[in-house]
Each structure stands twice: as structure tokens, then as C-alpha cells.
Design a protein that fits this description.
261 residues; alpha+beta; Cathepsin B, Chain A; seven-stranded antiparallel sheet; 5 helices; 13 strands; 19% helix; 23% strand; Peptidase_C39-like; Peptidase C39-like domain-containing protein; signal; UCP032442
Length: 261
Amino acid sequence: MRQTAIATLTAWGVLLTGCGAAAPQTEQSQPVPSSERLSSKHPSSEQSAIPAPRLALHTNTARPAQAMLDIPVIAQNPELKNGCEVTSLAMLLQHAGHSVDKMTLARQVKKEPEPIVQQNGDIKKWGDPAEGFVGDMTGKKKGFAVYNKPLEELLRHYMGERTVNLTGESYETLLDSVAAGYPVVIWATGDFTPPTEWEYWDSDGKQIVVPFDEHAVLLVGYDETYAYVNDPLTVKKQRRVAHQALKNSWEALGKQAVTYR
């Protein structure tokens, strides 16, 4: 898959839970039982607490130096422990004027029906997140994630030809979208550092390679030093992330992004 051009690594013998395990806990986030999530091996500190290197952004455009969209944040928990993608999409669609909630989107998004098959604790077979949501979104059973194409299809159901898939475009294109008034659902990691641990399995003869701590957020703003995201897991509105950290994390997840015009 274009979003998983990663070298094959040995399975780590634990189960994935996608975005439900990605971000550090805060007083605003709902705790996820350890039996249902993977403990991230990344540092749990906020990106705002580390030095923020400035990203060399294009200067030959009309994009303003900063922009911020005032969009209410929606929590994925407690109903959707693995539902960061549809929750981020709910924020985007509500901003676009659609009164649709995360639970409706969770029912509507395409599902990957292939059941999980394990051997000695390792995942051997499971679904393809490029085809639909893999596993259980609620966290009652094992679940993982869904990637850009199924989410684009769901967005198109509401926005029609206004739907835009920015997957594979430049980071500056994401900022251009926000500057124009359109937030962007992006795939990254929960702590916005490049993933260091990977799981792989077979799906209908295709090898799926994924990071343990995949996450999706809504990009809502930027300035010279930081990007700002609505994070459905920590329930932080306009959570600031150093540009280079977000860019690196987003690229590691295949530069996936969807929005509208």
C-alpha cells in the first residue's frame, strides 16, 4: 500500500488498538483500559514542551503567516476507543454545516470484515485499513484503524464533488487548505513522533505493515512555528505541535489527508 512502504519487521506479539492507544492521557481524556490498548513506547511529553524547530515553509505564496479555525473539539471516548478517524471527520463535517455525529459516521464508514487470526500471540491475518475499518471501533473487541480512501468515500457522501483527498500532497498544501478555511483530517501518531515499532500481517495475500500508535486528528491552524490540531483522544482543542514534528509523523503514516472545498 502507498501508506505502508515500510521494511518488514518481526511482529511484537501484542495486539493493536489504533488511535485508542496513541496519545498521552490528560485530565480531559477518557482512560483506556490497559487490556484494550497498547502502551506507546514513545515519550509521553507534549510537543509544545520541547524546542520547536522552525519549518522552512514556502514564502512565494499568498498564504498568510498564520491562521486558526475555531472548531469545537469532539471526544472519541468513551464510545469509540478506536474511532479517531470518524471523530475527526465529524468535526470537519460539522464545520462544513452538516449536523452529523461520530456515532453515525462510525456506522456508515466502510468496514473490513476479515477476522483477526493469531498464532502464538502474533497477528497472522487481519483486514486492510486501506479498504475499510479493521476490527472493532468501540474497543469492546480488538480494533485498529481506517485509512484515507474509505474516509474519502464517507466524506463524499456528505460533500459530493467538494470532497478533496490530499494524500500524497505536500505539507504546505495542508496549510494552504487551513488558510482557505478548510480543516484537514490527517493521519499521524499520538505523540507526533515518527513510529519506531511496527506490526505486520497478511490480508488476502497482501502484506499489511502498520505502526502501533496510528492516530488521526483535525488540522485547524498554524503559525510560523507551530501547527494546531483538534485531538479527539486527548480532547484538546487547537493542540499545538511543532511543524517539523507533525510533518515527520504525517509523512511516516503515508502523507494521508482528506478535506473539502
